[in-house]
Amino acid sequence: MKNTNSSQLCLPGEIVDDILLCLPAKSLLRFKLVSKPWNSLISGPNFAQSHLNRSNTLISQGERCGNLLRLGQISISKRKHRPDGQGPRPSLSLDSMDADGSHREVVTIDLGLQRYSNRPSILGSCNGLLLVLVNRVDFFLLNPLTRQYKKISPVRLHGGDRLISGLGYESTSGNYKGIIATHSHGGPSSPHIIYDYVYDYKLNNWKRRREFHYGVKYDDSAVMVNGIPHWCVYRQRIQPLEEAADGEGYVSYDLIVYVDLKTEEVKEVELPLWAATGEKRFNLGVLGGCLCMSLDPRGSSTSIEVWAMKEYGIAESWTKLFAINSSFFRQLLLRPICFTGTGRNKVLMQGTYGGKIIIFNLKEELEKLLALYKYGSTVCTYVGSLVFPEEEVGNEAIAQGID
């Protein structure tokens, strides 16, 4: 065989960059070992951001979601040995898989926890980062792929029967912000007691506010659309005497709200006219980069409709995408997560309760139970990425070796 000069096999740097940008983030971690130039390139913040932008674009177009998005759930386990030899120490375990059900794995990350927790929570995800709460006092910003993390400033959460939360990225300032709202029932005369908090990553502090004037339906993390956290909430109004069966009472109606990350104001998303009457109940999701709602079935119905806001912020753009018939709807409140496969024929749905992940084949009208998570924490979706916020000297995130 004729020898080929190795120099003739070298590709221009820009072509190498383009090839690497097309690879999964997990593969890129291994390719850092190929050479010093590759390690330098892949480790750079500009490359990490370009790779993330490409992944987010494909997801918003409904392409390759099956192997770009991951589903994850956390629990706290005990390691057999501590580095100091003084017995087991709690560590975080992340059980995750691709959105198409492949590449399931469990990774363990030592966060330096001092006590066990049976109810850790993923409060939100954005750009491949997770906002994690342990023991209701310890907050972490974590990249589960690179295993970089930072313990962030704590905040005392005031009680609350229910909690909604999210993590977002404000692109103008290049800053991450966390949002938490807790909700307690205060009785008929004061139906809602709401506390809300906003975390600023650059300042590393929380602000407590009284801007969230909505009821929380159930514990929930935000649905991310255009990098902005959204939630389904409700309000109550007094029911007129002529409409109330037993005298004056309260009637609730669902709304969609989001937080403007620049002004930190809570704003409402316009609903279609048929939903604005308050007679419909729904859950939020996202498909092909569009905000979606899945209508709750009523009575013995086993059918739901999924609607999408084709043009964000335009009420008239709400469009019915499809309807699904399934016995699962008698047991669960389902939210759309993403399309999988080709041609948008399959949709992934997540149960609000019970930890079930289900794939529906819209063309063949088939369904498949993809996963039944056993832990008590919520299941979140996140994109595999290499990003982590840059830190001031002396305030760096902690990085752990990758197995």
- Helicity level, as a percent range? 10-25%
Mean pLDDT: 81
DSSP strand tally: 26
Given the structure, what is the number of helices?
6
CATH architecture of the largest domain: 6 Propeller
Number of domains: 2
**CATH topology tier name of the largest domain:** Neuraminidase
Largest sheet data: 5 strands, mixed
Q: In what order do the strands lie side by side in the largest sheet?
A: 11-10-9-8-13
Structural class: mainly beta
pLDDT < 50 stretches: 4-8, 392-396
Task: Please tell me about this protein's structure.
- This protein is mainly β and 403 residues long.
- It has two domains: 15-60, no CATH class; 65-383, 6 Propeller (Neuraminidase).
- Helices cover 12% and strands 42% of the residues.
- The chain contains six helices and 26 strands.
- A five-stranded mixed β-sheet has the order 11-10-9-8-13, with no helix packed on it.
- It is globular and about 70 Å long.
